[in-house]
Every structure is written in C-alpha cells, then in structure tokens.
Design goal:
Strand order of the largest sheet: 6-5-7-8-12-11
Shape: globular
Number of strands: 12
CATH class of the largest domain: Alpha Beta
Order of helices and strands: HHEHEHEHEHEHEHEHHEEEHEHEH
Length: about 375
C-alpha cells in the first residue's frame, strides 16, 4: 500500500482469505511472506527508509509477540518514527468460541496494544466503512509517524474468488498425514514426541485416538509457532538416554531457525528432528514459505547436527529413522510432503493443561520403567 492509497476492492472472512487474495493479486515484490512477524515489521521499516512510503504488515494477533521488539525499539515515534499500518486478525475475541490459546490472546489483545501505546481501530464489515477506517489509519500513521493497528474480526472478509498460485516443490508426494503415520510407527512407542502447532498436532492426536493409544509420550504444541523444537530440546536436555523427537513444519522451522544452531551446540545424542516440508503455511491458506531456497539437510549439518537426510517416499521413512538413530543425534530428517489436509480433520479433545499432565505422567512412568530395567540414567 502506497502512502495515502487505499484499495477498496471487496477482498477476502478471516486473514486466511486476505492472504490468499494478496498472494494471487500482488506481484512478489509487493507481497512478501517473511519468516516471522518481527521480520515483516523490519522489512516495512526498510521499505519506508528507502521510499518514504507507508507499507502494511498483516498478521494474526498471536504474532504480536514476535513483533513487539521491532515495533517498540525501532518503529515507535520515540525512536525512529516509522509510519506503518498493521492489519491484525483478532482471533479469540471476547464472546467468541475458539481454541484456548486463541481465547487468551484475544482477551488481552486490546490491553496489549494499549500498553504498547499503539492506536487501534476495528475494521467494519462493510466495504465503504472498511475503506474509511483503513484510510483513517493511514492518516493517523502519517500524522504520528508511527505504527497504527487495524483489528479484523472473524468473518469480516468474504471468501476470495481466486486461489493463491502454488507450484509443488516435488510432484507425486505423500500427504503429511500419511508421512506422519509412517514416522510415528517407525519411531515406536518408547520415545517422547513434541509436535508442532497446526495441522501436524491435530493429525497426531487423531492417529493416536483412532488406534486407542492412551499412553503416548506426545506433547502437542497447540500455540507458539516455531517453538516446538526448543521445547523438544528442553525435554531432551533433562531426559538423557531417552529419545525425543520433534515433529516440525517448514514454516515453523524458518520462523525460529536459530534453534538449529542451539541444537547443534548442545549435541544431545537423544534429540531427533523431523521436518515435514510442504513448502507452504497450510493453516493460513497455503501461502508459500521461503523453504524452496533452502537445502534443509545441509543447513542442519552446517548448524552442527551429526546427521541429516532428505527423503520423499513413504518407503524411505523407516530406514531413515533407523539411520539417524544409529548415528545418534542431533539428527534431522526432512520429509517432502504435499500441501493440504483432510477437511474433516478433528481437533484435540483434551485441553492444553490435560495434554501437559498426560505427557509429564507418561514420560515419568516410561523413565521409571527404564531405570528399573537398565539402571541409572
């Protein structure tokens, strides 16, 4: 968005639809999917420094945490005075039925923005009113020389009448769900598993439920995208001698890729990292990530992992699991999968607190059995 310009097209229900529309309608140099929300704010700052124009960052309110640092320490009027408009999806708004992590974020969104001294407005659902609010936000950003937020409620945008373009990284790939089942079967029941947020955790939960597995050592990271690998590292650091597997996604890996270097530095023999790479942000509408430019296995090796493999077929999964186990961790397996998930995929029926309790109890029982059988850890 150029300074003072507002597009009045009746564009996309939630930010998923907005992102799909942008990906389909805007050239790549006008719509950039960054690794995380803070990086998006940084790019907008650079854009303004070079052009003097106001640009836009869009994110879910769960991404505000990643953006706080550059918003307050760089873009704020008391620092570099960078005008910008942030379009923020208001998931979990009070009065709505949503996931626990979204309800918490939604409840504190307004108070968080107020504490950051960010002016904010709620986008009306009608086109004319929406355009007027966005134009007002642009005007306020220019006047205060700082960020302004436009909150977007659920069902504000219509479904776009055009799909975002996407070219598969590799043709004829298995689905993530099929690959997940193969990985879980190969890993077996004795290892702890930390699954990344989004479809991956939902698919793992459903697979366990269908198979009536009640003693799984699974931690479902339902929020905090990009942090599953750090959680798994923390578990592995305090559980030497017992395998810990992080089941990750390519978007999550990129969001906090520095964890690869920390894993390499810790050099834990029990830490194993599986990245299901479909090249897109599946939960957000299928926008492409930058993973197509990355040799993930080479990146892991450069970060200090002992072993790293990239595979494409379901038949390669079990041998790959055996390979990295025999070479010891930290090790990584990149599994190439196709985008998408079943539309009838269920959500976890347990609360995050219940999942935490089950995980801790099951891991403790497994550790106790191992101590009794094999001696001190």
């Amino acid at each position: 968005m150029r300074s003072g310009e507002v597009s009045c097209h009746q564009i996309p229900k939630v930010l998923k639809n907005l992102g799909t529309y942008f990906a389909a309608e805007l050239p790549k140099d006008r719509h950039v999917i960054t690794a995380n929300e803070g990086a998006a704010v940084g790019m907008v700052i650079g854009h303004h420094l070079r052009t003097g124009e106001i640009a836009t960052v869009y994110m879910q309110n769960s991404g505000i945490g990643n953006a706080i640092k550059p918003l307050l320490s760089l873009a704020d009027p008391d620092v570099y005075s960078i005008p910008m408009v942030l379009i923020v999806g208001w998931r979990g708004r009070p009065g709505e039925n949503d996931e626990p992590q979204h309800l918490k974020q939604g409840r504190v969104t307004e108070s968080l923005l107020s504490a950051m001294e960010l002016p904010y407005f709620t986008l009306p659902r009608d086109v004319q009113g929406g355009c007027a609010v966005v134009q007002h936000a642009v005007d306020i950003a220019k006047a205060r020389q700082g960020p302004v937020v436009v909150l977007v409620e659920k069902d504000t945008f219509d479904h776009p009448r055009i799909d975002a373009p996407f070219t598969a990284l590799v043709p004829d790939l298995p689905s993530r769900e099929e690959a997940l089942h193969a990985v879980v079967d190969a890993v077996g029941r004795g290892a702890a598993i930390v699954a990344a947020t989004g479809m991956l955790s939902r698919e793992l939960f459903e697979y366990r439920a269908v198979n009536s597995v009640v003693d799984a050592l699974d931690f479902l990271t339902v929020g905090g995208m990009g942090h599953a690998s750090s959680i798994a590292l923390g578990v592995a650091l305090r559980q030497p001698g017992h395998d810990v597997w992080c089941l990750d996604g390519d978007g999550a890996l990129l969001m906090h890729a520095g964890t690869l270097a920390v894993a390499g530095q810790l050099a834990l023999h029990s830490f194993f990292h599986v990245v299901f790479n479909n090249g897109v942000h599946d939960s957000m509408g299928g926008q492409a990530t930058a993973i197509g430019n990355v040799d993930v296995a080479a990146l892991a090796l450069a970060a200090g992992y002992r072993n790293a493999l990239s595979i494409q077929g379901l038949g390669e999964i079990a041998p790959a699991v055996e390979d990295v186990r025999s070479s010891l961790g930290p090790a990584l397996i990149e599994v190439m999968v196709r985008p998408g998930a079943r539309p009838d995929l269920s959500r976890p029926l347990t609360t995050p607190v219940q999942n935490k309790g089950h995980f801790m109890a099951n891991v403790n029982r497994a550790a106790a059995r191992s101590t009794q059988n094999w001696g001190p850890l």
